[in-house]
Write a structure and sequence with these properties.
The protein contains six helices and seven strands. It is α/β, with parallel strands linked by helices. A seven-stranded parallel β-sheet has the order 3-2-1-6-4-7-5, with helices on both faces.
Length: 178
């Protein structure tokens, strides 16, 4: 109708900058999303990351929701405070994080321990899988710990943004006891 808008793309933060910024923290926390494609889930995860003080989110270059207006809206502004890095290869990225002293914790229902049993007082890379397939095999192989959320109801899974929120608050509570 005769209206044109010029909008700026939401920039990704280089992985190297995220690593450098995390060195300032005693126990940095990076959330790694393996194939989360729903922009509403990405936005909700960013919102929780901001709420608990996570240092960054990493997403793969392919097979992930891009940083869009929908992600920004759902994040209610958290996208402006939580750095999001885009990496080419999650497996290699996790190897690099391990070299930097991170423990890689993957949310996986099978062959896993209860999420409340882990000591999170160390640098953590929390890996969350895609909405339908979970964590890919090669990424799962990089996990030092596999944690699960106990499920006693009739459904066997939670939405990835809800599961991420529970795990992030467990990490927060472990690091910040009352």
């Amino acid at each position: 109708q005769g209206i044109v808008a010029h909008v700026k793309l939401i920039p990704y933060v280089p992985f190297e900058k995220i690593l450098e910024d995390c060195k300032k923290e005693r126990f940095p926390l990076i959330v790694v999303l393996d194939g989360v494609e729903d922009p509403h889930n990405l936005g909700a995860i960013l919102r929780t990351c901001d709420a608990i003080g996570a240092n960054a989110v990493l997403v793969p270059k392919h097979g992930s929701a891009p940083l869009t207006a929908t992600v920004a809206k759902v994040s209610t502004g958290a996208i402006d405070y939580v750095p999001v890095g885009q990496v080419t290869n999650l497996t290699n990225t996790l190897k690099k994080l391990k070299e930097e002293g991170y423990w890689v914790v993957g949310a996986e229902a099978h062959e896993s321990q209860d999420y409340r049993e882990v000591d999170y007082k160390c640098p953590i890379a929390l890996v969350m899988g895609s909405e339908g397939k979970g964590i890919s095999r090669l990424v799962l192989e990089q996990c030092d710990f596999r944690v699960k959320l106990p499920m006693v109801g009739h459904v066997n899974s939670l939405n990835v943004s809800n599961a991420t929120a529970i795990l992030l608050y467990q990490i927060y509570n472990d690091r910040n006891p009352i």
